Each structure stands twice: as C-alpha cells, then as structure tokens.
Amino acid sequence: MTNRAVKPTSLHNASAGAEGSASDEAHGGSSRSEAAVSPDHQKRPVPATRMNERQQLSYIAAQAADARLNVELETEGMTLNIGPQHPATHGTLRIVARLDGEQVVWAEPVAGYMHRGYEKLTEVRTFPQVTTLVNRIDWLGSFANEVPFILAAEKLMGVEAPPRAQYIRTILFELSRIANVSLFLGDLGVQMGAITPVFLAFRDREYVLNLIEGATGGRFHPNFDRIGGLKDDLPKGWIDETKQVMKKLRTFCDQIEDLLFGNEIFQSRTRGIGIIPAEVAKSYGLSGANLRASGVDWDLRRDQSLPMAWDKADFKVWTHPDGDSWARCWVRLQETREATKIVDQLIDNIPAGPVMTKVPRIIKVPEGEAWVSTENPLGEMGYYVVSKGDLGPFRVKIRSASFNNISIASWVLKGVYVPDIITILASMYFILGDIDR
Amino acid sequence: MSHSSSEAAQLSDTTVSDTSATETQALPGDGLREGIVDALRADLGEHLLDIHLVPQDDLWVRVAAESWAFAAQSLKAQGFDYFCFISAIDWLPSPYGKGEDDPDAEPFVPSTEIKQGYAGGDTRFQLLARVTDLSRHVSVTLKSDVPESMSMPTWIASYFGANWHERETHEMFGIGFAGHPDLRNLYLPGAFEGYPLRKDFPLLSRMVKPWPGIVDVEPMPKSDDADVVETPEVGESES
Lengths: 437, 239
Fold this sequence. Notes:
The complex is a heterodimer of chains A (437) and B (239).
Chain A lengths: L1 H4 L5 H7 L3 H15 L17 H21 L3 E6 L11 E7 L2 E8 L7 H4 L5 H8 L7 H16 L5 H29 L4 H21 L8 E2 L2 E2 L7 H24 L2 H7 L7 H7 L4 H4 L7 H4 L21 H23 L20 E9 L2 E9 L7 E5 L1 H7 L1 H4 L5 H11 L3 H5 L1
Antiparallel strand pairs in A: 1-2, 2-3, 4-5, 6-7, 7-8
Chain B lengths: L1 H11 L1 H12 L5 H14 L3 E7 L3 E6 L4 H11 L3 E9 L34 E9 L4 E8 L5 E3 L8 H12 L2 E3 L25 H5 L31
Parallel strand pairs in B: 2-5, 6-7
Antiparallel strand pairs in B: 1-2, 3-4, 4-5
Helix pairs in contact in B: 1-2, 3-4
C-alpha cells in the first residue's frame, strides 16, 4: 500500500477517503489497478459520470473555510499580472488579477494586443478578398472561418453551391475542427505540467494538416472557399488517405482520454473548478463546447438549416451537466471523435458533379443584409454582412466565438485560486486572433 | 381548400399530389416570427417602429431608442436568453472611397446620401443586436436609431455578455451606453482619438499607399452594369 502513503490531492480521492476506512481501501485498490497496464485497459471506457454531490459539497466547503481564514488573517491584497506573454494565454492576452492570499478577488482579461481591425479592412476589399482576411481570425481552424462569410455572401446573391461542393466544404470544415481541437487536447496537458500529450497532438495534427494541404494547397490558411463553390476538386487518392487519418485520429482521442482524462492530477485540477451555470453561460453568449458543457443542448450544425452537408451525417451532440473545466475539456474530446465520424460518413457519399456554380467573374453582391453563423471549432462564428450592391461589403460585423467566451472570465475567475486561473482559461479555449479580430 | 385539391390530386395521379404537398409547405407565412413580433408589439406599443421579416429565415425589428433596453427585457422574457452580439452601423457612405490607385477606374465621387437598410431608420448611426431563443430555434436582429446625443441605454441588466460588446461599440463608434459600469477602451490605447469604425475615419495605410486596384481581372460578361463592362465578352466563366 505504498501509494496510499502519498495522499493524492485529488478532490475525488479526498472525498472518497472521508467515507471511512473500508471504502478508502477499496478505492486505493481500484486506483492501483487503474495504474497497472491490464490487457483490457484499452477497451474499458473511462466513466464520464457527473460529479457527485459529495464532491461538489467538499469543494464548496473547502472554499468557504479558506475564505473564513482569509478574513481572520486579514491577508493583504496584491495585484498579479499574467501576460501578455505567457504560455497559458495562447497569444497575447493579459490577465490582471487582484488577490487576497491565494484567492482571486477580481480578475479581468485585457485584450487588444493583437487587434488588426478586420471590420474596417473589409470595407476596402472586394467580397472574394475578404476570405483572405477572415482566414486569420481563428488561425488553427482557418477554413471554418471562411465558410460563414461565403455563405452570407451567397445568401445575398441568391446562389447556392453545388452538392459536391457542399459536401467537400463540410468535410474540410470538420477537418479544421479536428486539427484545431486536437491541438487543444494536447495543449491542455502542457498547462498542467504534462508534456507527453502535446507531442502526440502535434504528431497527429500533422496528418490532418497534410490532408488540408493536399486538398487546398495551404496548411494553415487555405483560402479555398469561393462564392458559388470551391476553388478546386479533391486530388486523387485523397479520400483513401483521409479514411486512414481518421482512424489515426480516433486512436489519438483514445490515447488522450486514457493519458490525460484518466489522470488523477488532471481530474483534481479540473473537476468542480470554474463552474458556469447554464443561465450565466447563455447570458454571456458562450457558444460551442463551453455552452454544451453547461448542459445546454445547442449545436448550430444540427439546429439550423444551411446549405451544408451536416444534415446528411448522423452524429451526436455531446453535452455535460457539470459546467466545470473538466466538462468543457471532455465535451471537446467527444466532439473530435464525432467530427472524425462525420468525415467518414460524408466522404463515402460525396455526390458527383461540379464544385462550382455559375457566378460572374466580377462579383457584385446585391443590396441587402444577411447574417450567417456556423458552429466553428471555438463556438458560434457569424458574419453580419451589409451590402450596398457594390464590389465590396459596406459593413461586416464579425461575431467571433472567443470574444464572448472570454468575456465571462472576470465572472468565472472570481473566488478561484491562482493555479486554477490557468486551468480555467485553458478549458475555456480561446485563440487570440478570435478575440481581437 | 388545399385539402380538397390534394384529394382530387390523389384520385388522378400520385406525382401531382406530391407537388401540391410541397406547395402547401412553401406558403410564405411564418407564424413563429409573426408571433414574436406580436408579443413585442404588445410590450412596446408604438415604440416598435418597423419590422422586416423574411419568412422561414430571419427577422429584423427596429425599436425606438428609449425602448432599447426594454426591448431586450421583453425578448428575454419571451425566451430569447442567448446573447449573440451588439454592434453598430454607420450608414454614411465613406468619403474616401476604397483608396485604390487604379488608372482605369472612374474617379471617386463622394456621396453623402444616407440610406438605411432593412427595417428602415432615420439616423446616421444605428445599433444592431442579435439574440437567440435556443428552445424555439429562432433569432431576432434588433435595430435602433441612435439619437444626436449618441447615448443609448445599456443591455447589461438583461444580458451580461453585452458588457464587452458595448465597450467595443463605444470605442469604435463613439456611442455611449448609459448605465454601463465600465466604458473603458477594450482594444484601443486609452488616449486614442477618433472612432475607427466610423466611415469618416480614414484608413491611414490606404491613404499613405493606395492599393494598385483591380489590375488582373476581366470585365464581367453579359452584365447590364455599364460602369463595370466596357467591352462585352462572350461566354461565362466556369472555372
């Protein structure tokens, strides 16, 4: 029983230990067998149950006890500045936190270190040129940024891409989701001191980037979507390769689920921490996995009709009732799996035909206003496009997911401990280009 | 009416009955969005100024400035609890053009004609916001004219997420939000002068070095637009 001597700091174990010696021993035994490599280890699914009430109560009680202690000790406040350059900030986000001892009293993210003014720049560009700009908003899932803008322009023009282009668009959209979120899953480990997952993530994301490069010519910024369809058809052999890569990515998801999500340290640092109730999440306009992790069953791929091929695939929209950091990470992991399944289903059924409909060489978009948003890797990304019948848009409002997702930070960081700032921000998953635009 | 016609169609031919069924579905009514407008009108009365409804697609509602915050309350009570965004539009055409240096292009003539978009309007600046009802799967785009005082009520009481969006709108358009706790600049340095997203704010990089313009594209084939087409060309591009 050597591993029982080292008392794990995990919340899970702490509450289990309080139940009494009998259950404590049972728990110690089970955690040892978990650590051992058993032959059925791969097959056994990691339980994704909601945190029980005892765990939640013990966490709340611990926080209340610390708060009392701080009042008694009259610990002096200090201001902690994190960033703009910090590994946990995915770019240049600065967090200013006022602390009372180890607890955050007030915290606020400071954005704007990377503001590029895309909304202004779109006003001096033509419609096809705008995709080059919006590629750089969420730079890990670039293709997904192009799609809602192109769809908005197509909506105003009254054209629709041919079915083949819709399928390929959806496949590339999901591939950029996989590339984006798989890097998130690896990066998650780094935030908590685990190095291995990030190597796995970079290795396996490379396969997906190779696919995107093979089809579009660009690893990061494809600029492949056109008004009326796509620039090119898929290259030869791409479909077989994609099937292979999707298998690899599912293996990657299994590895991460065992290695990271099954890790006690990871669990103790994420479970019950940074809880966002559904009402608050909706009021802040959280979207994507952050919203679904608060138990809100809302996915724009399923819940609106767009000229895309998501309705042709059968997939599950995962939600989690807890709303904590763990839930957000877990939902993203499941979404990566679902995305590989969507790609697998669509790729067998790509219809024949052209990838481009007939559009004029010089595109003038008729006067009007249109809003189109899609479920991007980071959440709801939408464009409000106002056209005055000119070559370029009159005004484009870019609604990016991370802007809303991170605006809740000052709410959720209130009262947490300093190390939890990092894990909560990591689980919220933002990309600086997506905040600052 | 449609019932009897489909019965008659069933008697004659099955394919005809299919088309009549789709025709019935494609009727232009939209009870869901019309119901939302009715509920809003019941709350706001004559402060609901104008609507623009695209059936089965989208809904724009323009409300009076003094009812801007109340409209948010009313929508939230109707179930629109998901906040999407707040922004603004400056309807003044840009006095600078596109900053292009194309020798073939017509000289740019600045216009001062202000023409608002869907759901109309009277002022140069309009606020724009969007909220969603996640259970009924429907969204509304709200608009409101911004008065001369450039001050609007805040939405924070209804939607927490409005905080950052109103800060951004404030620094980019110079629209104030009464009741907002903290209207600091979000992106721009504190001492920045001017409001970048206003149309009369010049894009300096284009002023300093104009863009070479459209140099490599051909005229649009078979178009009625005289200002684009100089020489008519045969065949449409299919690439």
